[in-house]
Amino acid sequence: MRLASVALVVRDYDEAIAYFVTMLGFSLVEDTDLGGGKRWVRVAAPGGGSDLLLAKAINDEQSAAIGRAGGGRVCYFLHTDDFSSAYATLKARGVHFLEEPRNEPYGSVVVFADLYGNRWDLVGLTPGAGIDGVSS
Fold this sequence. Notes:
Radius of gyration: 15 Å
CATH architecture of the largest domain: Roll
Strand content: 35-45%
Shape: globular
CATH superfamily of the largest domain: 2,3-Dihydroxybiphenyl 1,2-Dioxygenase, domain 1
CATH topology of the largest domain: 2,3-Dihydroxybiphenyl 1,2-Dioxygenase, domain 1
Helix content: 10-25%
Number of helices: 3
């Protein structure tokens, strides 16, 4: 088995696609109209791995979850082989960083918020660190 997709509740398909493709450099993997205003939209980070299924909120309960995917914690992790370059690129695109980059025993890390406020780690792992690198 493998984890294929992780759902992210969004306000609007097109604004979410624009953010992930333009700001983070993800690719649009699929955008299939399912009828009735529902779409199957998947985006993926440039380096591969699981993709994000952008799921449009359809009721008040789902709308209340927008931006709260991790309950206020970092819940998405982007790993990069070139932390400095990735950070500079994302910053130049206008990604909203919540802190300055810092060095941890596992590597370089910085937290950013997506367009809805969900928290993400950008991580450059130190070779041989032995962990996946998570924020505290």
